[in-house]
Amino acid sequence: MRHRTLSALVLVPLVLGLTVFGGWPFAALWVLAGLAILYEWSAMARLGKRTLWLTLGAVAVVVGAGMLVFGSRSSALGTVLGCAAVAALLVPRQSVWSLSGVLVAAAAALPIIALRGEGPLGLLAVLFIYAVVWATDIFAYFVGRALGGPKLWPRVSPNKTWSGAIGGAVAGVVAGVVVVAVGGVADLWPAGVIALALSAVSQAGDLAESAVKRRCGVKDASRLIPGHGGILDRLDGFAAAALAALLLAELHGGMDPAAALLLW
Questions:
Q1: Where is the chain membrane-spanning (predicted)?
Q2: Residue 214 CA from chain centroid, whole number
Q3: How far does Cα 80 stand from its chain's mean position?
Q4: Which of 52, 60, 144, 238 is 20 to 30 A from residue 114's alpha carbon, by CA?
Q5: What is the per-residue pLDDT for 1?
Q6: 126: number of CA atoms within 13 Å, CB side?
């Protein structure tokens, strides 16, 4: 816990500072996170043709991010899907692992860049997702430890409980609503519903990564962050929530994903 706390004290101000700054520095932060996840995935899955696969995955993340910065979401999506398809062909005996690794890294890096954009609503949307996911993660841990009870999915993650999942969801909703209320959003009911959905998706992403690690026979994606494991260990739930938020915004419609996410 001491290592986890110290790592958070270093990383959270850095992430928040770059989020407020926005632009290329913010995009570069998430590109680096995506590249780190590519490396971790290739090691966990023991992918063949690893150098070629990493290069292809890096093209998906870097070029996709560049397209998002210049406002072309459709081109970024096409780039990611094209690279993922080629990756599956590149390592045919591990096609599922190869394809999914590119998609996971892109999901961790690109949706949050698209949502951030350049305006104040983009900043508010990203802070909203941070609040939901971080509160869910923190309170699920402490409520689960305090209350215990039936396990959520013991075969995959034996420490997670239903009490923790519910406590985390409640905290995620409260945190998300507080952020958008402070940010000036008048209608808070949609934000609460969205926060609940994102909290659930975040916890599902966490469980999915636990299943992947169990399948690969590893405890952590890597040891890059003291007390936390790898980048993927920290961004599993966040990647799922950010992707879900962007998909919801796209379904709602509009040129600005952040406005489509927050304003109903």
A1: 51-69, 75-91, 96-115, 121-143, 164-182
A2: 20
A3: 16
A4: 52
A5: 59
A6: 25
Distances (CA, A) of 153 to 159, 168, 170, 172: 9, 16, 19, 20
Cα 44 to Cα 215: distance, rounded to the nearest angstrom: 9
Confidence (pLDDT) at 71: 76
What is the C-alpha separation between 81 and 73, in angstroms, rounded?
12
Amino acid identity, position 114 = A
Provide the token pair at 100: 């999914």
Rounded Cα–Cα distance for residues 65 and 73 (Å):
9
Tokens read off for 190: 């949609």
